[in-house]
Amino acid sequence: MCSLILCQKRNLITMCCKMFHRNLLIIALLLLSMLIVGCSTLEKVVYRPDMNQGNYLSHHDVEKIEKGMTQQQVAYILGTPMLRDPFGSRTWFYVFRQQTGHEKITQRTLTLLFDADGALINIEK
């Protein structure tokens, strides 16, 4: 009788150890899979929307700008500049940044310089 109880205890302990090791293995595999997914190098699998920031200027609108135009005329055609010269309003910056999906960021800058009277004197594309 005593040996039967002892055998049952051994079987129970062995079964508990097997269950513990199996559960530990499952937990370890789950943690490992989470780490692998978190550190994925498959960047292009994840959807990334197109990002446009700043002043979008069409080529047609930029071609309308001519030297001698006033600040009001330029603002009417192109809109408000992204940046103005902090020490006055003689230099205007129109900045447009675009990132399409997983491609590199492209940036275009249009710099306009006005004289003291507010007339456009220089255009840098």
Automatic annotation (TrEMBL):
One function term, GO molecular function aspect: protein-macromolecule adaptor activity
Localisation: Cell outer membrane
GO cellular component: Bam protein complex
Any one of the GO BP annotations: Gram-negative-bacterium-type cell outer membrane assembly
UniProt main location, coarse: membrane
Function per UniProt: Part of the outer membrane protein assembly complex, which is involved in assembly and insertion of beta-barrel proteins into the outer membrane.
HAMAP family noted in UniProt: OM_assembly_BamE
Similarity comment text for this entry: Belongs to the BamE family.
Quaternary state and interactors: Part of the Bam complex, which is composed of the outer membrane protein BamA, and four lipoproteins BamB, BamC, BamD and BamE.
Full protein name: Outer membrane protein assembly factor BamE
The species this protein was found in: Candidatus Regiella insecticola LSR1
